[in-house]
Amino acid sequence: MSKWFYMNLVLLLMAIWQVVKPFSFPIFSLPILFGLIGFLLFLFNWTRNAVFSTIRNVPERKTKIKLANLSKKVMPYHRWIGTAALVFILLHAVFVLHWYSFSFQNMKMLAGLLAFVNLILMVLTGWWRLVKPTGRMRQIHLRLGISLFFIISLHLLL
Ligand code: HEM
How many CA atoms lie within 13 A of 114 on its CB side? Predict the structure, then answer.
Protein backbone atom coordinates (compact mmCIF):
# COMPACT_ATOMS: atom_id res chain seq x y z
CA MET A 1 0.00 0.00 0.00
CA SER A 2 1.24 3.51 -0.80
CA LYS A 3 2.51 5.76 1.99
CA TRP A 4 -0.21 8.21 0.90
CA PHE A 5 -2.91 5.91 2.29
CA TYR A 6 -1.33 6.18 5.72
CA MET A 7 -0.78 9.94 5.39
CA ASN A 8 -4.42 10.43 4.31
CA LEU A 9 -5.57 8.32 7.26
CA VAL A 10 -3.51 10.44 9.67
CA LEU A 11 -4.99 13.63 8.17
CA LEU A 12 -8.52 12.20 8.44
CA LEU A 13 -7.99 11.27 12.10
CA MET A 14 -6.55 14.74 12.74
CA ALA A 15 -9.65 16.42 11.23
CA ILE A 16 -12.02 14.12 13.17
CA TRP A 17 -10.12 14.84 16.38
CA GLN A 18 -10.34 18.62 15.85
CA VAL A 19 -14.06 18.39 15.18
CA VAL A 20 -15.00 16.07 18.05
CA LYS A 21 -12.80 17.81 20.61
CA PRO A 22 -14.93 18.17 23.77
CA PHE A 23 -15.43 21.92 23.30
CA SER A 24 -17.24 21.79 19.99
CA PHE A 25 -18.78 18.29 19.95
CA PRO A 26 -21.63 17.33 19.59
CA ILE A 27 -22.83 20.79 18.58
CA PHE A 28 -21.50 21.38 15.07
CA SER A 29 -21.16 25.04 14.28
CA LEU A 30 -21.93 25.86 10.64
CA PRO A 31 -18.33 26.87 9.80
CA ILE A 32 -17.00 23.57 11.18
CA LEU A 33 -19.72 21.51 9.49
CA PHE A 34 -19.03 23.05 6.06
CA GLY A 35 -15.25 22.84 6.64
CA LEU A 36 -15.55 19.14 7.48
CA ILE A 37 -17.72 18.35 4.43
CA GLY A 38 -15.33 20.26 2.11
CA PHE A 39 -12.37 18.51 3.71
CA LEU A 40 -13.94 15.03 3.30
CA LEU A 41 -14.72 15.72 -0.37
CA PHE A 42 -11.12 16.87 -0.96
CA LEU A 43 -9.74 13.79 0.82
CA PHE A 44 -11.97 11.45 -1.21
CA ASN A 45 -10.56 12.91 -4.43
CA TRP A 46 -7.00 12.98 -3.09
CA THR A 47 -7.19 9.25 -2.27
CA ARG A 48 -7.05 8.76 -6.05
CA ASN A 49 -3.39 9.74 -5.79
CA ALA A 50 -2.82 6.99 -3.18
CA VAL A 51 -4.57 4.47 -5.46
CA PHE A 52 -2.41 5.45 -8.48
CA SER A 53 0.71 5.33 -6.39
CA THR A 54 -0.24 1.80 -5.23
CA ILE A 55 -0.94 0.72 -8.83
CA ARG A 56 2.60 1.84 -9.77
CA ASN A 57 4.28 0.02 -6.89
CA VAL A 58 2.28 -3.16 -6.31
CA PRO A 59 3.79 -6.20 -8.10
CA GLU A 60 0.58 -8.29 -8.54
CA ARG A 61 -1.12 -7.69 -11.89
CA LYS A 62 -4.54 -8.71 -10.49
CA THR A 63 -4.40 -6.01 -7.80
CA LYS A 64 -3.27 -3.42 -10.39
CA ILE A 65 -6.28 -4.21 -12.61
CA LYS A 66 -8.70 -4.19 -9.65
CA LEU A 67 -7.48 -0.79 -8.48
CA ALA A 68 -7.44 0.66 -12.01
CA ASN A 69 -11.08 -0.43 -12.53
CA LEU A 70 -12.10 1.06 -9.20
CA SER A 71 -10.40 4.33 -10.09
CA LYS A 72 -12.10 4.36 -13.52
CA LYS A 73 -15.54 4.00 -11.89
CA VAL A 74 -15.01 7.08 -9.73
CA MET A 75 -13.40 9.23 -12.44
CA PRO A 76 -16.65 10.66 -13.95
CA TYR A 77 -17.41 12.23 -10.57
CA HIS A 78 -13.86 13.47 -9.77
CA ARG A 79 -14.24 17.01 -11.15
CA TRP A 80 -17.70 17.46 -9.63
CA ILE A 81 -16.54 16.24 -6.23
CA GLY A 82 -13.63 18.71 -6.38
CA THR A 83 -16.00 21.51 -7.39
CA ALA A 84 -18.41 20.59 -4.58
CA ALA A 85 -15.45 20.70 -2.14
CA LEU A 86 -14.73 24.25 -3.33
CA VAL A 87 -18.38 25.28 -2.82
CA PHE A 88 -18.43 23.87 0.73
CA ILE A 89 -15.10 25.51 1.58
CA LEU A 90 -16.43 28.80 0.21
CA LEU A 91 -19.42 28.45 2.59
CA HIS A 92 -16.96 27.52 5.38
CA ALA A 93 -14.97 30.71 4.75
CA VAL A 94 -18.11 32.87 4.46
CA PHE A 95 -19.42 31.61 7.83
CA VAL A 96 -15.99 31.90 9.47
CA LEU A 97 -15.62 35.50 8.26
CA HIS A 98 -19.20 36.31 9.31
CA TRP A 99 -18.73 34.88 12.82
CA TYR A 100 -15.12 35.84 13.60
CA SER A 101 -14.05 38.44 10.99
CA PHE A 102 -10.70 38.12 9.24
CA SER A 103 -7.40 38.79 10.98
CA PHE A 104 -3.85 38.55 9.54
CA GLN A 105 -2.68 37.68 13.08
CA ASN A 106 -4.78 34.51 13.06
CA MET A 107 -2.49 31.81 11.61
CA LYS A 108 -5.37 29.33 11.24
CA MET A 109 -7.19 31.82 9.01
CA LEU A 110 -4.05 32.56 7.00
CA ALA A 111 -3.40 28.85 6.41
CA GLY A 112 -7.10 28.44 5.53
CA LEU A 113 -6.93 31.29 3.03
CA LEU A 114 -3.83 29.78 1.43
CA ALA A 115 -5.59 26.39 1.24
CA PHE A 116 -8.62 28.08 -0.34
CA VAL A 117 -6.51 29.73 -3.09
CA ASN A 118 -4.73 26.40 -3.64
CA LEU A 119 -8.09 24.62 -3.92
CA ILE A 120 -9.36 27.17 -6.47
CA LEU A 121 -6.25 26.52 -8.61
CA MET A 122 -6.73 22.76 -8.22
CA VAL A 123 -10.33 22.90 -9.41
CA LEU A 124 -9.39 25.23 -12.30
CA THR A 125 -6.52 22.99 -13.48
CA GLY A 126 -8.85 19.97 -13.09
CA TRP A 127 -11.43 21.48 -15.45
CA TRP A 128 -8.74 22.85 -17.75
CA ARG A 129 -7.47 19.30 -18.30
CA LEU A 130 -10.86 18.49 -19.79
CA VAL A 131 -10.36 21.27 -22.38
CA LYS A 132 -6.64 20.68 -23.01
CA PRO A 133 -5.21 17.50 -21.47
CA THR A 134 -1.43 17.96 -21.36
CA GLY A 135 1.19 16.18 -19.24
CA ARG A 136 2.33 19.54 -17.85
CA MET A 137 -1.18 20.35 -16.58
CA ARG A 138 -1.37 16.86 -15.00
CA GLN A 139 1.90 17.60 -13.16
CA ILE A 140 0.66 21.01 -12.00
CA HIS A 141 -2.64 19.50 -10.80
CA LEU A 142 -0.74 16.80 -8.88
CA ARG A 143 1.70 19.27 -7.30
CA LEU A 144 -1.20 21.51 -6.26
CA GLY A 145 -2.74 18.44 -4.59
CA ILE A 146 0.47 17.74 -2.65
CA SER A 147 0.78 21.35 -1.47
CA LEU A 148 -2.94 21.44 -0.56
CA PHE A 149 -2.50 18.29 1.53
CA PHE A 150 0.26 19.94 3.60
CA ILE A 151 -1.46 23.35 3.88
CA ILE A 152 -4.66 21.65 5.10
CA SER A 153 -2.56 19.69 7.64
CA LEU A 154 -1.20 23.01 8.89
CA HIS A 155 -4.68 24.57 8.94
CA LEU A 156 -5.99 21.71 11.09
CA LEU A 157 -2.98 21.73 13.43
CA LEU A 158 -3.02 25.47 14.16
C1 HEM B 1 -9.28 23.98 1.58
C2 HEM B 1 -9.65 24.89 2.46
C3 HEM B 1 -10.11 24.59 3.88
C4 HEM B 1 -10.36 23.37 4.52
C5 HEM B 1 -10.25 21.95 3.95
C6 HEM B 1 -10.77 23.70 5.87
C7 HEM B 1 -11.15 22.74 6.80
C8 HEM B 1 -11.49 23.04 8.12
C9 HEM B 1 -11.95 22.09 9.09
C10 HEM B 1 -12.17 20.58 8.82
C11 HEM B 1 -12.14 22.74 10.26
C12 HEM B 1 -12.65 22.15 11.59
C13 HEM B 1 -11.49 21.58 12.42
C14 HEM B 1 -10.66 22.64 13.10
O15 HEM B 1 -11.18 23.45 13.88
O16 HEM B 1 -9.43 22.64 12.88
C17 HEM B 1 -11.79 24.14 10.05
C18 HEM B 1 -11.83 25.13 11.01
C19 HEM B 1 -11.57 26.47 10.78
N20 HEM B 1 -11.25 27.05 9.58
FE21 HEM B 1 -11.03 26.09 7.83
N22 HEM B 1 -10.77 25.06 6.03
C23 HEM B 1 -10.39 25.66 4.84
C24 HEM B 1 -10.31 27.00 4.56
C25 HEM B 1 -10.50 28.03 5.50
C26 HEM B 1 -10.52 29.46 5.21
C27 HEM B 1 -10.43 30.06 3.81
C28 HEM B 1 -10.65 30.10 6.41
C29 HEM B 1 -10.76 31.57 6.73
C30 HEM B 1 -10.62 32.56 5.92
C31 HEM B 1 -10.72 29.10 7.45
C32 HEM B 1 -10.82 29.34 8.80
C33 HEM B 1 -11.10 28.40 9.78
C34 HEM B 1 -11.30 28.71 11.20
C35 HEM B 1 -11.22 30.08 11.87
C36 HEM B 1 -11.62 27.49 11.82
C37 HEM B 1 -11.98 27.27 13.29
C38 HEM B 1 -13.50 27.42 13.41
C39 HEM B 1 -13.99 27.23 14.83
O40 HEM B 1 -13.26 26.71 15.67
O41 HEM B 1 -15.16 27.57 15.06
N42 HEM B 1 -10.65 27.86 6.86
N43 HEM B 1 -11.41 24.30 8.74
Answer: 19
